[in-house]
Amino acid sequence: MSSSRRSFLRLSAVVLPFSRISDLFAKSAINKPVVISTWDSGQIANGAAWPVLEKGGKALDAVEQAAIAIENDINCCVGLGGNPDRDGHVTLDACIMDEKANCGSVAFLERIKHPVSVARKLMETTPHVFLAGVGAQQFALANGFKLEPDKLSPDAEKSYKQWLIKAEYKPVINIEHQQSHPKGHGPFAPARLEDGSFNHDTMGTLALDAKGDLSGMCTTSGMGFKMRGRVGDSPIIGAGLFVDNEIGAATSSGQGEEVIRVCGTHLVVEFMRSGLSPEEACKKAVERIVKPNPERAKTFQVGFIAINKQGEVGAYSVQKGFNYTVTEQGGKGKVINAKSYFA
Ligand code: SD4
User: Fold this and answer.
1) Quick check: 137 pLDDT over 90?
2) Which domain holds residue 110?
3) Model pTM?
4) Running DSSP on this structure, what letter comes out for residue 166?
5) 3-state SS record for 91-104
6) Using a 6 Å CB cutoff, which residues line ligand 1?
7) Is 2 within the bounds of a domain?
C-alpha cells in the first residue's frame, strides 16, 4: 500500500464518520451507460438510444437516434407533427453537442423532418455552429434531406383551427395543463390534451456511454402559435443544451425566453463543476430564474435535467408537473417526477 493511501485511510478513520467515507467512494462509482430524457415521452427517445449504448456505441449516436425516434412520432409534440406558429407553419429548432465540445444548431427550419440530424451534419462538415431559416433548409437539401409537404398533421391542424377562433397571443407554457396532466404525454397517455394543446413541445436527451463520454441533443417545434420567426432556448448552446465532458451535461424544457436569460444549461453544468449533484445544480439554476421576479415566475414553467460524469442524474422545475425518463442497466425506462420550486 502506498504511504499516501495509508495516511489517507488513517486520517479517514480518525476524522471522517463511516457514512462520509462511503460517500467519498460512492462519488467515484460510475453508472454507465445511462440515458435520460425530458418528460415521460423520454421512453420513446431512450428506447431508441439504449440499443446504441448497450452495444457499446457512442453517446452522440445514441442521442441522435433518440431525436430521430421522437421526431418521427407524428403523435408527439416535437418535429413536423408539432403545433405551428401563429401563421400556420411548423418551424423547428434543434441542436446537438458531443464530448469534444463540437456542436451544431438549426433554428426556424421548415419542412425538414430531422433537424437534429441536420445540426449534426452542420457540426461535422462545416466550420459553423448555427444555421437559421432558409439557409438551414438550403443546407439540409444540399445534404440529402428531403423537403416534406407544407402541411400540418391532422391533430395540429385541429388545434390550430381551435386557436384561430380567438387567436389570442399568449406565448406562455400552459401550467394548468402540465399540472393536471402530468402524464399527458408519451405512449401511455394521449400526447395532445382534450382541447388540442400539448403539455410540452420539446425533447432533450443526455447520454453517458460505456466509454464514459457524454453527448446531448434538444429538439422542438417551439411554443405553439408563437410569433413567426420566434426562436426559443432549444437550439441555443448553453441555453437549451450544454455538454462538458469533464463535468456533465444538461438540457431544458419550458419557457425558452426564461432559460436564455440565464444561459440555463451552461449554468447547471457550472454548478455541477462547483461540486453540486445534478439535482442540486438544476435547483440552483431554477432559483436563479425565479429570483429577479418571483411573481412573474408563477406564470411560467421551466424544467432542467442533468447528468454528471459519474452517471448520476437529477432534475428540477419551476412548477410541479415536470418529469423525466432514466434508462440504465436493464434497459427499462423509469419515469421520475421532478421536484419543483412552487409546490
Ligand atoms: C421553446 N423551450 O421554444 C421551448 C418550448 C418547450 O415544452 O420546451 N416546450 O421555448
Assistant:
1) yes
2) 32-340
3) 0.88
4) H
5) CEEEEEECCCCCEE
6) 173, 200-202, 220, 222-223, 232-234, 253-256
7) no
